[in-house]
Amino acid sequence: MDNTDFNGKLAQLLFPDIDKTPDYYEKLYPDRGLPEGARVTRFAPSPTGYLHIGGLFGALVDVLTAKVSGGVSYLRIEDTDKKREIEDGVSGITDGMKAFGVEFDEGVTGFGTEKGNYGPYTQSKRVEIYQTVAKSLVEKGLAYPCFCSADELDQIRSEQEKEGAAIRGYFGKWAKCRNLTYDEIEKKIKNGESWVLRFRSDGSEERRVFFDDVIRGKIEMPENIIDEVLLKSDGIPTYHFAHVCDDHFMHTTHVIRGEEWISSVPKHIALFKACGFRVPKYAHTPQVMKIDEETGDKRKLSKRKDPEAAVEYFITEGYPKEALIEYLLTVISSGFEDWRRANPAVSAEDYPFNLKKMSSSGCLFDIMKLRDVSKKIISTMTADEVYSRITGWAETRDPDLYSAFTSDKERTVAILNIDRDVPKPRKDIAKWNEVKDYYSYMFREFYTNDLVLPENISPADAVEIVSEYAGVFSLEDDKETWFNRIKGMCDSLGFASDNKEYKQNPDKYKGNVSDVVTVIRIALTSRAQTPDLYPIMTILGCDEIKSRLEYAASFWKGMLPNG
After folding, report:
1. CA dihedral defined by 158, 162, 163, 164, rounded to 10 degrees?
2. In this structure, are 368 and 328 located in the same domain?
3. Which one of 107, 197, 198, 236 counts the least CB within 10 Å of its CB?
4. Same domain, yes or no, for 132 and 151?
């Protein structure tokens, strides 16, 4: 039996139910017809747990790379490892993407749903495609069945260890099933022996493979010599083989993935070439790192140690989607912050992203910088938008806050608008779960008296200030009149009404008008610092102001020796 007959007969023995050829799928998935230079990218996670922040990082790179080139990005679910898969892990991925506005042009859209003409976009639904390509490889003499048991493979590894083999794996003299005869193979299959399909590598230890990584430049590595498993014993492909088939038939032009996959490139290139497929461009992104608080060293974000490793953390905490995306862009691209300074009002979606501007070293995730970015973004939102975002978040995560905020929308929006619609809005809130505490003094449901005075103000002086103010304040005053009333109290209380005068003669006074305002502020809000006190008072209303001033006077009076 010559090789052609042997290969054809073996292919039929291994895949008797496969009646299609790769050409069938070439016609089913034709060229996308995109303009020259358009890039087709994919994000291809496994539904084996929560969506990692590194996954969102990678997905954002995929989407931006396709968008700036007029190409296509798609979401593919790689669910061939059923042992590690969790129930409905797909929704965790798609929901996380939607929460932060990362949208793909094609692919899986949710549990059991997808869009696009190059699907199915879930690997477990593409088994016939993989087996069709696998059968063609057997017909070409480029793949063969391997019947080695787990114990036999362990024995091979032990032998390689003893011999000090530089490369370890299933190849060369250790590839025991590589040269089985047809009769031997047929007998094993009839006996019900389990088998996997392996790639028949023609690689050499002496040869090198070169490829241009879009991010890292030219990379040189040893050629692949391992007879890698293509199909597992259940007929399901390995990641390596599925990647090659899917990226070919879906016409992926750029495979963007984490740097941990660099070592696999030689085997992937060998598989693409063996299948007669064009090798895509590779771009290996850096890992998302953080500074370890204990050692001060860089380390990978850990699922076990770092809550921020999970995208769900940012949803639960209430970071606006724009903030996390904006921050990730500062991490992803060295040119983003300069672009943002030049385009302060432009959406981050319009950033002209360039893979070549990505760093090849680990990207540091800095939660404090994220907070700063988020505060700035929230400060630019209108009060109505902030109201909508907060209530949308709180409805399922903080029912008490939702109830308080929605009981009087007009009042709540007025509260949110304090120091917002001004040339330099305050930047106090970084995420929605800080809102209840930040605005607690505006809501009776959340307000707790905490009347701690500054060190330079005595309880006796505080009592005098709030007692006198209770008799003079009026909500009919405009802001200038309101402040002049406070200034008018100062001299009789021993405080300077003019800050300039106070600076020139500090020993002459107990303090200045700012100290008087601070005491009133603490009496009304239990805070030494708040947004503009004037609008706070107009919203609190006369009865609430009187009640709080009376309580503060009584409280501080109780601190006096004869109180």
Report:
1. 100
2. yes
3. 236
4. yes
DSSP strand pairing (281-285 vs 254-258): parallel
Q: What is the pLDDT of residues 205-238, one digit of tens each?
A: 889 999 999 999 999 999 999 999 999 999 999 9
274 and 404 assigned to the same domain: no
pTM: 0.88
Residues 176 and 226 in one domain: yes
Phi-psi region for residue 37, left (φ > 0), alpha (ψ -120 to 50) or beta? left
- What is the C-alpha R_g of the chain? 34
E strand segments, 111-167? 113-115, 143-146
Whether residues 140 and 243 share a domain: the answer is yes
Regarding whether 166 and 17 lie in a shared domain, the answer is: yes
Question: DSSP 3-state helix, strand, coil percentages of the chain (rounded to 5)?
Answer: 50, 10, 40
E strand spans, 422-563: 495-496, 511-512
Q: Would you say residue 435 lies in a domain?
A: no
Pure H helices in 349-430: 367-379, 383-397, 399-406, 409-416
What is the number of structural domains in the chain? 4
The type of residue at 450 is: D
Q: Residue ranges of the chain with pLDDT lower than 50? A: none
Full domain range(s) for residue 325: 290-379
